[in-house]
């Protein structure tokens, strides 16, 4: 039990655990202290100096985010000294920030803008430093745009990239007036180890880091008579889109999402969840095949553990950081890319549209998906399988631009075919979801019985723990799977790339004996993806996660292999898992990349 | 030459031949006894911040952990300061003795000299002395080793927590305090970090006892201080003088007869104009606050041929370059002060803009993360206030 500390903030008594900060104490009694460099997901920096408070009888001000409380402290958060200091800090930040607000993608969503309106930074500001600097915009990456002229050096992105993700694509370079957030040798983002996860974007308080947007291209396609525009929506979009449109976190808006997409003019409104189910069939069979080769055929070239491949941030990470393990990654494409490949082949033929006249759009909680869609190997249909990837945020903006009152939209349903999905597909959006979905199917394939968990809820792989492990004992198997009788399937689930690194290092050291590992690049899985509504925090991600499992529980079909459209596509088109067609359209390969 | 009326002292640079014996004698005494001597001597940190040395050692000794460090801060980077170089060159044994006694008291087995990058030339001779010193320690049965860590040239790395970061292989950026170094310093372990001169003084206290030290100086500022005298003086150099002298007496001794200002404490210190020479005393700010000025040792004299605008411009240029850049007030504030005085000088801003800059400097003093940003106001405000017309015309 932590000792309790008594202090007074603005003359209000607070009692709080020892080791808490003044900021936490103030929040406990609903006093808002403005912050910029502070972020709940990150360690304390104390460098923006916006959250300064006054301690009675003390000369210098204190940074409330970094200063621990002490017994008998008397703090003022709104004294003349505090207000003028805060205003000055905001004025200084504005003077080095290209305050081109009306032309900025983050206009209306910028924390510096909010503070400058609160503290009325008027015309009598300091000298504008921006014209004196040689700022450049790095917009070469298909995912991320970095505009140094809008950077306020709070280093949230640096802490995100180094601590949360343990990548280090972003770091601080130079000192003094030249100090800036930069990359290895100041190379453009697409040349360095950036995984395009976009977590930095989620935490950037200004417009310095944003996703590359494609809504103009999508609007053009929607307004072109010749084009048939197909859209797919990822599992995690439907539980977060509402946040960007004024609704509370954790609202399920699947029906409204479909309505909105129809109103925007998409010709076919389909679901990535369909190919999530398909992924389970392909990836699950791949796992069983690898196990069979290893255990029955004694094939020593088989690589285990097998890891998932749905998260393009994770895929690029392993290509950079652990290229010796590329053969361990499932060859199954991500649901987005399976969808793209099928859209311009199977689906196009079904609806009688020439693939060259089809525009394939995806709405993703992700910025790395933009990069994934651009990979040269993602052209199995003979065309670019997914033409444009929109983030959840971009779609929200398009809905606003179209003048749609999202909250009042009626619920609608996805088109058939490639619109049906199971609960197993929905939970792809949460960390542990792919594992749970795979186990629901694989266990049943092997034993003929449902997984032995109440209501199919495999709780050991759920939740926000950094790394989760679960062992499933396989007993009383069907005859063709007799080699698995009594086997213990060892699984591991990790989310966030720092955890991914830990797991891979354990695998490399030989201290972890897993068969199957699920890794998602982003904290919480796709629900915390780099394309999701801003802000993000552990509490927000928890709400999104709850919504995902609620959606799963409500689904009449809970297992991927029971999705009738999946059954149908095998009968009619793919014939069998891991078959010739699957190989052509649904599987891929990986490329070793530079370590730095 | 004029008659000298300031007493020149010779505690620090006096070549002693009994250093080994004094060390041996001191190591035989109890920890509390030594700490009490240091506390009662009134010795305060000679880097300029003036934290009581005995108390620092005591705090570190009270931390319950096996791994602790003693670090000698030899990153002498303050413009106009060059006395630590001389101390390390002529009496390194005294510094090492101070480190060894500190190590014994707090329970450290490892010590470092963080040597300013530009002092690379000192390294070979220091290594020789350290080698010799190690065998002395072995004879005395003290398990303590000293290594040299070479800085890379950033001014900010003289700030103790930035120095730790630098030693840990990270960017030299100051940390949030608390925790303080005696609780979490180098490698997050309890660390005593002392200036070169401070450590040399501890030797004098071990040898002569606290009273002799305390007899020198005034009130909160006890003992002697090594000054680096530069600028418009016929006799630039390094001088050990008693604390508590007035700037007037200093100028009488060292000036060229035409001094208009003395910058006490380097770029981060205060500018004393001629009219305040006799009202200003050199010593730590304590009971004397307002009229006494601390210094890490830098005393720069400017005569009437100097433009104080140029002096200030030079200092600001320095800060704009040497701010680590992490905190807003320091990174942006220094740039604004520099551009601001340029704009006023050129007439691009009205002279009243100087008031806005004074407010900015004061804001930086209360909001900046570390001593660098906090002390920019010292030189800025004292120069602008006293030489306003030079800023405008």
Short description:
The complex is a heterodimer of chains A (596) and B (393). Chain A is an alpha/beta fold. Helices cover 33% and strands 13% of the residues of chain A.
Topology:
The complex is a heterodimer of chains A (about 600) and B (about 400).
Chain A: E1 4-9, E2 12-17, H1 22-28, E3 52-55, E4 62-63, E5 74-76, H2 80-95, H3 111-118, E6 137-138, E7 144-147, H4 156-164, E8 171-173, E9 180-182, H5 199-203, E10 209-211, H6 215-222, E11 228-233, H7 254-264, E12 268-271, H8 272-295, E13 306-307, H9 312-321, H10 335-351, E14 358-364, H11 368-374, E15 388-391, H12 392-401, H13 423-426, H14 433-447, E16 467-473, E17 488-495, H15 497-509, E18 516-520, H16 538-554, H17 564-574, H18 580-585
Parallel strand pairs in A: 1-5, 11-12, 11-14, 13-18, 14-15, 17-18
Antiparallel strand pairs in A: 1-2, 3-4, 3-5, 6-7, 7-10, 8-9, 16-17
Chain B: H1 19-27, H2 31-41, H3 53-62, E1 69-74, H4 83-90, H5 92-106, E2 110-115, H6 123-140, E3 145-150, H7 160-167, E4 191-195, H8 196-208, H9 210-214, E5 217-218, E6 221-222, E7 224-231, E8 237-242, H10 247-254, E9 259-264, E10 270-273, E11 281-282, E12 292-293, E13 298-303, H11 308-322, H12 328-346, H13 353-367, H14 371-386, H15 388-392
Parallel strand pairs in B: 1-2, 1-4, 2-3, 7-13, 11-12
Antiparallel strand pairs in B: 5-6, 7-8, 9-10, 9-13
Helix pairs in contact in B: 1-5, 2-3, 5-6, 5-8, 11-12, 11-14, 12-13, 12-14, 13-14
